[in-house]
Write a structure and sequence with these properties.
- It is a single chain.
- With about 140 residues, this protein is of the alpha+beta class.
- It has 2 domains: about 1-40, N-terminal domain of TfIIb (Single Sheet), CATH 2.20.25; about 40-135, K homology (KH) domain (GMP Synthetase, Chain A, domain 3, 2-Layer Sandwich), CATH 3.30.300.20.
- It contains 3 helices and 6 strands.
- Strands 1-2-3 form a 3-stranded antiparallel beta sheet, with no helix packed on it. A 3-stranded mixed beta sheet has the order 4-5-6, with helices on one face.
- The longest helix is centred in the middle third of the chain and has 23 residues, at about 40-60.
- The chain starts with a strand and ends with a strand.
Length: about 140
């Protein structure tokens, strides 16, 4: 995988990866950014949530689990001594589907965590990631 980042103005940037989709990046206003786009650290959290979220939905769909709605909340705690570093991340999956089973959801999360989600594999080496779910 490759990425390219270009400065637009000040601390505003655009970036693209192999997918060839451009994405806006920005720094915090206190360091000269315009607060007009996501910060890189935010994108790590969004990437993790998106990666594992898509995995879980895909796995449940392949198992023909009765999934009607899905959302995932990701919350990161920053280190007191370095606020730019995550010390732990909590992922909470919210799923709805009549007849959706705990064992299927738990298995889908386990598979994403251990086999499929590369963002989870990388970030888990840097901080603790906690997984929880609620069937609504």
């Amino acid at each position: 995988m490759k990425a390219e980042v270009r400065m637009v103005k000040g601390l505003s940037f655009v970036a693209k990866s192999d997918s060839n989709h451009w994405l806006a990046l920005d720094g915090p206003p206190e360091f000269g950014g315009a607060a007009a786009a996501s910060r890189p650290l935010e994108l790590l959290l969004i990437g993790l949530a998106g990666c594992t979220g898509m995995d879980v939905v895909s796995i449940l769909t392949k198992k023909r689990a009765p999934l009607e709605a899905f959302r995932l909340e990701a919350e990161a705690t920053r280190a007191a001594e370095h606020p730019k570093v995550f010390t732990d991340i909590k992922l909470t999956y919210f799923l709805r589907g009549e007849g959706l089973k705990d064992k299927d959801v738990a298995e889908a999360i386990r598979l994403s965590r251990q086999r499929y989600c590369s963002a989870s594999a990388m970030l888990s080496k840097a901080c603790e990631i906690y997984y929880d779910y609620k069937i609504e």
